[in-house]
Amino acid sequence: MQLFYGQVEGDRVVLSEDESKHAIRVLRKKSGDILSVIDGHGGLYTGPIVEEHQKHCAIQIDEHVENWGEVPYDFHLAIAPTKNMDRLEWLLEKSVEIGISRISPILCEHSERKVFKPERLERILLSGVKQSLKGKIPQLDPLVKFNDFIGQSRSYPTYIGYCGEGTKTPLIDQMRTNGSSVCVMIGPEGDFSPEEFQNALAAGITGITLGDQRLRTETAALAAVHTAHIATLL
Questions:
Q1: Among 64, 170, 186, 218, which is disulfide-ready with 91 (CB 3.0 to 4.6 Å)?
Q2: Distance between CA atoms of residues 34 and 49, nearest Å
Q3: Please, what are the domains in the chain?
């Protein structure tokens, strides 16, 4: 199944300029050809091309499915962006394939990357959604300071992964007890500082572990995403 991305306008869906160019110029789609288009919010629309234009290709909506391809839980990943952006890009691509709803980049005491540009990551998220046949693009938040993030309220439990000393339980045990919609915080290569960990606990966030092995930031994050996925199957 080949997916495109566009926005609903009345009884039509208009593809973005990049998607229109790919459909008309690269794939040589013509008027009357049937396309499947997601709106990025969970909607899938199917219908024939009624406007064959390489900048604003449009389809007539014949079929519409809500919540298409969504996983039955919300996974909110709060992560300190890696110094090497290739690692973060790889992580987001794989996380979308497994199932993730929101990404919050956080600025920590040990963060090596202090500037965050979302444009390329947004394209990677869209590509991952289309590749894994999902209808909803995960929310990508602006970079936020650690203390500001832990002060935010959320309707689901928040956990912080930490390698140092402190009270921690396995993430899988927490998810069996509290359900599968969660926020998990993963720190930079130098980990969260002891003060950050204590501040998180004081804010009502629960300390968790992903095992005895020391993992890179992106590996730990993907392990957490996969743990959430597995928890829904148990």
A1: 218
A2: 6
A3: 3-65 (2.40.240.20), 75-231 (3.40.1280.10)
